[in-house]
Specification:
The chain is of the alpha+beta class. Helix content is about 30%, strand content about 30%. Strands 1-2-3-8-7-6-5-4 form an 8-stranded antiparallel beta sheet, with helices on both faces. Strand 2 and strand 3 form a beta hairpin.
Length: about 230
């Protein structure tokens, strides 16, 4: 930022002003050169390895008592929102992630509760950053949309919620889903998305009822801490 001095101070500062073009300027340049050299020495982020993604994914031993492992059911569905600005949110219900390599994928049940975590990696950090940014932007512009799931129309409303921070950046939101063809079928799902370097995790928590939302913070922290540590290993 350039600072303009008053005319009356110009003479008094004439000598010291030389500092910016001589000795002090040289020192500043040297510091900048060192900073540039350090930046050049820092290795570019690389994709997470299979071992890192496995280490970044929750295991049964990480959870409180009352949970059990369930086998993820494969799905070929690629949900499409009826509003383009909402597609990044609809995409959180897809198994595959465009441009990414999926690694850890785990699901758990605890009575009528469920918890799922998926870890995936991009070739560079920009892909991971763009993924999180797209969801963040969608949450600001999209408050409701519809899409098809398992052959039925689902009406969705979203809202931002708070959750413990994870990785280099993270966000959390709640999805309220209703199936008009089966009015009694309603879901409220808590989701967290976090990024660490080139890696991203998605965590989904479905409580048995509204009173179970209070458990999300603790579960999100467990998943977030495990992901961050594993991605950095």
């Amino acid at each position: 930022m350039r600072i303009r001095m008053r005319r009356g101070a110009a003479a008094a500062l004439a000598v010291s002003a030389l500092c910016f073009t001589a000795a002090c300027g040289g020192a500043a340049d040297q510091k900048q050169d060192k900073a540039d050299d350090k930046a050049k020495e820092a290795p570019a982020p690389t994709p997470l390895t299979a071992a890192q993604m496995k280490a970044a994914t929750l295991e049964l031993k990480d959870l409180p008592a009352g949970w059990k492992v369930t086998k993820p059911e494969p799905s070929n569905e690629d949900p499409k929102a009826d509003k383009p600005e909402c597609q990044p949110i609809a995409g959180t219900f897809a198994d595959k992630v465009a441009g990414a390599t999926v690694g850890g994928d785990q699901e758990f049940e605890g009575g009528e509760r469920s918890l799922a975590q998926q870890v995936f990696t991009y070739q560079d950090s920009s892909g991971a950053t763009d993924f999180v940014k797209a969801i963040s932007t969608a949450l600001d512009t999209c408050k409701g949309f519809s899409f098809e799931m398992e052959g039925m129309k689902a009406d969705v409303k979203t809202e931002k919620i708070t959750a413990p921070k994870a990785g280099e950046e993270s966000l959390a939101f709640r999805v309220k889903m209703v199936f008009p063809e089966m009015a009694e079928v309603k879901f409220e799902i808590n989701l967290m998305v976090a990024r660490q370097g080139t890696g991203v995790t998605r965590v989904a928590h479905v409580p048995a009822d509204a009173s179970g939302h209070k458990d999300f913070d603790a579960l999100a922290k467990l998943a977030g801490d495990k992901f961050t540590k594993g991605a950095q290993s």
